[in-house]
Amino acid sequence: MAFQQGLSGLNTASKALDVTSNNIANASTVGFKTSATHFADVYAASLSGGGASQVGIGSSAAAIVQQYTQGNITTTSNSLDIAINGAGFYRTAKDGAVTYTRNGQFHADDQGYLVNDSGANLTGYLADANGSIIPTTPTALKLSTADIAPQVTGSTSSGVQAQLNLDSTKSVPASTWVAPTGTNTPQTDTYNFSTATTIYDTLGNAHTMTMYFEKTTPVAAGATGAWNVHYQVDGTSEANVASSPVLLEFNSTGKLITTMPVTAFSVDLDGVATDLGKTNNAAATMTFNMSFTGTTQYGSSFSVSSLTQDGYAAGHLAGLSIGKDGVIQGNYSNGQSRNLAQIVLANFTNPNGLMSVGNNGWIETAASGQPLVGAPNTGTLGVLQSGAVEESNVDLTGELVNMIVQQRNYQASAQSIKTQDQIMQTMVNLK
Questions:
Q1: Where are the alpha helices (DSSP H) in 264-395?
Q2: Could you give the CA distance from residue 106 to residue 100 in angstroms, rounded to a whole number?
Q3: Residue 133 contacts by C-beta under 8 Å, 6 or more apart in sequence?
Q4: What is the distance between the alpha carbons of residues 351 and 374, in angstroms, rounded to a whole number?
Q5: Dihedrals φ, ψ of 429, to 5°?
Q6: Collapsing DSSP states into helix, strand and coil, what is residue 207?
Q7: What is the distance in angstroms between the CA of the first residue and the CA of the last residue of the chain?
Q8: DSSP, res 325
Q9: Residue 245: is the preceding peptide bond cis (ω within 30°)?
Q10: Which is nearest to 50 in space by CA: 42, 62, 58?
Q11: Of 61, 36, 66, residue with least CA distance to 360
C-alpha cells in the first residue's frame, strides 16, 4: 500500500518546509546560520536481506544541518558591535551557563559589563594595572571607566628628549646672559634660540619648561662649537632648575660629543610655586633624564626635529577601540591609551554537533567536542571587526525556490495517497 510512503513524504516535505520557513524568518537575524534538511530513504528490515524487487516504505528527514558559512559584514555606528570574519564563536556566560554565539551585538550594562541582548556576559581575558593582557580562564569582561592616573615626567628612562639643529653660523650673543630671578624673563640679546616643552608633576599638573640656547666658547678637546642651554620652568627663576645651564659641545662635523643623557636633571617645584605666589601640592622635586641625542650643529637654520617627554596628566575615558585581535583599548582625554581586556573566541571540532538554544545561541554537546578557546586571529580562529555585524547567511532567493520545491513534493505525496485511496475504493466496489 502506498499510504505509508505517501504519509512519510508528507511528513518530510512538511519538516523541510518548517526548516525553510525558519530560515526565511531569520533572514535579518544577526549571526544566524541557515539550515538544510537532509533526506534519507526508508526500507523495511528483512531477515533474508534485500533484493532487486525490494520496495521502499518512504522517506525520512535524516538530519537538520546548519551551514556555518560566512555572512556578509555590515558596518554600524556602535563600536561595541563586533563581527567575526572567519571561524569561531563568542563565548558568553549567564548564571553559570556558557553559550556560544555569532551575534556580536554587545553593549555595556549599568555595572560596566559587556552583555548581549539576552543579558549574557561576553567573556575574555582581563588586563592588569599596566595594561598587559593576562591569558587565564575566560571571565566576564567588565570595562573600567575610572580615570587614568597621571604620570610624572621621568617615570621612565626616556625622560625629556630633544633633537634639534643649532645654527653653526650664529655668533656669541652680544650681551652676557643674566640668570632670571622671580618671574623675570631673560633679555632677548643674551641668547640665540629658544623652545619649550610641557612637563608633568606627580599630580599631573602641567609645567612649561623653556630652553634658551646661548652660543659659547668650546671647552672640551676636539670641540669646535658649544652651546649653553639655560632653563626656566613656568617663567620663574633659573635657580629652580638645579642642572641649568647644560653645556652641549660639537665637533667639526657638527656631531654632538657631550655624553647623553644628562642624568638627575632636577626641578624645584616648591621654588617655582613660591615665585608664582602659589602653593605646591605635588612632590617637591622633579628629577628626570634630559637627552639631546641626535642634536646637530650644522650651517642651517635652527630647527626642532623632535621634542618629547614621558609624563602626562590624568585622563578621562573618552572612547573605546577594538582591534582585530580582540583587544579592547581605552582611549583617554590626555591622549593616552591602555589595554582593558581581550575578547576570546571558541571553535569546535564538529560545530554541527552544537545544540541550538535560541537567542542566537548554541551550547556544546558530546557530539560537538570540547571548545577550543583562544584569542582572535590565532590558529584557525577568525578576526574581529569593530563597529560591524555579521548578517544572516540565509540566501533568501534560494529559500523561496526551496519552498516551491517542497510545496510540489507535498502535493505529489498527497496525490499518491489520493490515488491509492481511489484504488482501494475500486477494489471495495468489486462484486
A1: 269-276
A2: 14
A3: 125, 126, 127, 327, 339, 341, 342
A4: 16
A5: -80, -5
A6: strand
A7: 21
A8: T
A9: yes
A10: 42
A11: 66
For residues 275 and 182, the answer to whether their CB atoms sit within 8 Å is: yes
CA–chain centroid gap for 158, Å, is 27
Which residues are within 8 A (CB) of 270 and not within 5 positions of it... i.e. 6 or more apart?
280, 284, 285
Q: Is 401 helix (H, G, I), strand (E, B) or coil?
A: helix
CATH topology of domain 160-309: Tick-borne Encephalitis virus Glycoprotein; domain 1 (2.60.98)
Extract the runs of DSSP E, i.e. beta strands, from 243-394.
Answer: 246-250, 262-268, 285-291, 303-309, 317-322, 327-332, 337-343, 345-347, 355-358, 361-363, 372-374, 383-386, 388-390
Q: Taking the model in full, what pTM does it have?
A: 0.79
Cα–Cα distance between 342 and 344 in angstroms, integer? Answer: 6
What are the backbone angles phi and psi of residue 4, rounded to the nearest 5°? Answer: -65, -45
| β partners of residue 151 | 312
pLDDT per position in the chain (431 positions), as tens? 567 777 777 788 888 899 999 999 999 999 999 999 988 888 776 655 555 666 777 787 888 889 999 999 999 999 999 999 999 999 999 999 999 999 999 999 999 999 999 999 999 999 988 889 989 999 999 988 889 999 999 998 889 999 999 999 999 999 999 999 999 999 999 999 999 999 999 999 999 999 999 999 999 999 999 999 999 999 999 999 998 999 999 999 999 999 999 988 899 999 999 999 999 999 999 999 999 999 999 999 999 999 999 999 999 999 999 999 999 999 999 999 999 999 999 999 999 999 999 988 999 999 999 999 999 999 999 999 999 999 999 999 999 998 898 888 888 877 877 777 788 888 788 76
How many helical (H) and strand (E) elements, i.e. helices and strands, does the chain have?
Answer: 3, 27
Say if residues 88 and 346 touch (Cβ distance below 8 Å). yes
Say which residue the cell 536481506 belongs to.
49
Nearest-angstrom CA–CA distance, 356 and 374:
22
- Pairing outcome for strands 160-165 and 285-291: parallel
- DSSP string for residues in 133-147: B---S-EE-B---PP
Rg, the chain, Cα only:
38
Closest CA to 204 of 163, 142, 152: 152
Least Cα distance to 295 among 269, 263, 257 occurs for 257
Q: What is the rounded CA–CA span in Å between residue 384 and residue 389?
A: 10
307 contacts 172 by C-beta, under 8 angstroms: no
Which grid cell is 262?
Answer: 644628562
Q: Which among 420, 396, 403, 356 has a CA at the least distance from the CA of 14? A: 403
